[in-house]
């Protein structure tokens, strides 16, 4: 599948502080790509680099076949962006605001009705944006991003501030858009439950590095069950498991996480632990949800660091 | 290829200028504000002529217009620059909408110059209104018994060129309002510099005032005005055409530098 976004060995420093460290990222065309990571790990920086707001220190950024550092306008013409919290012109009505986008993108005003319909924003026509709720602002910003039927949507926290009903609507909208219009959606989110229901692909960023990128299906199909062990002597158990060549990481004060383990292997492991006189109170074998998978990945990353 | 690129650029700039106008809060009030100096000037001229019968006294007539033109070119025009630059950049600062604008298909330098263009266009409009009032006053005056009262075309010419000569000031105020999120700073700075323009232009009676763009209006129009009414001028280090070229070149160099800077700068 050709790439809508291709980052190759991209680094970004603020002064001497590195924020992104040689990241490679490929977002396939037509995908609904979730970009995950804790706050302050470089997520927004990456989004700003993709949208051409930031210059990179080194590497290459290709969006819709265009180099964003030297020729960003042809790509931006085919993109719609919602970066950060929706910053709109408070003294305007929704239509006046969207007119500005139409003028700059050189598209007819009829487009306004279409995008307002898509985001389901029906307000009193003379109501000023200053009086909008956060959810309404978010929808209007999304409508602005949808002007001109973009091939690529970049959305930073699109469900931020929305009520549960609004989150559901946006989720359904995001799922339907690639099918309806063939557009690619690249979005960041902290709501992992929503990501699990929405995304087809995802990437995980931590400390300026991509820890994982691929299809969500890969995580599900990999059967990456994990065994969470609650042990008395963490140090002893940790060393034992390492020597036994298990992929183990510390997980909380008294817990260890043994990764990529099948039911059969887990059974064998119990016997080994008992034979080695390592006491454990509880052992839970589970197929992780995205949230658990996220926590595991973070724990592994921190342990490596 | 180059022709196509130029056409695309003009198309983008005209759309951006239109977008800037659409963004303006109360655009009609802004237009009224811009013609206010001309209206006030017309009223002063009419009142002065009506009550003091100065149509019969050429010296009094010229004094009225000298005062008005001095006030306009030395203070009011610069002050309008300060207000417009703060208004058109302030709209992005107050709504924190820089990122919204700059993720649209344009570059920061396009937005910078679109805002600057609309500010300059409004100044030009305001100045043309003033020139029309001034010219009309003298044309009306020429139908009275006032001997020797004729329209000085070279003065009208200087007057018309004022928005070009003041481009460096517009550039400075616009840049300050663009880069400083708190627009109070450029407004206070610009107001102080405007108020200091006359003392500075008088104090540096050689070429020193060339380094103080706020004095350009005073020197460019008022020196011409003083010549027009026969006063001796001691402070003209360069000719008017050289002065005009100097101001425009200064603006062009600054524009080139800021374009290069904006290309390299992150948008936070």
From TrEMBL, chain A:
Q: Which PANTHER family match?
A: ABC TRANSPORTER, ATP-BINDING PROTEIN
The keyword Glycosyltransferase appears for this protein? no
> Mind telling me which Gene3D superfamilies this protein's record contains?
P-loop containing nucleotide triphosphate hydrolases
GO MF term list: ATP binding; ATP hydrolysis activity
- The answer to whether the entry has keyword Transport is yes
Top-rank taxon, per record: Bacteria
Instruction: Spell out the SUPFAM superfamilies in the cross-references.
Output: P-loop containing nucleoside triphosphate hydrolases
Question: SMART domains given for it?
Answer: AAA
What protein name is recorded for this chain?
ABC-2 type transport system ATP-binding protein
The chain positions of domain ABC transporter read: 5-232
Automatic annotation (TrEMBL), chain B:
Domain of life of the organism in this record? Answer: Bacteria
Q: Does the keyword Membrane apply?
A: yes
Pfam families per the UniProt record, alphabetical = ABC2_membrane_4 (PF12730)
Instruction: Give UniProt keywords alphabetically.
Output: Membrane, Transmembrane, Transmembrane helix
Locate the transmembrane regions by residue number. 30-49, 69-90, 111-134, 154-173, 185-204, 243-262
Q: Record keywords: Membrane included? A: yes
Under which name does UniProt file this protein? ABC-2 type transport system permease protein
The species this protein belongs to is: Zymomonas mobilis
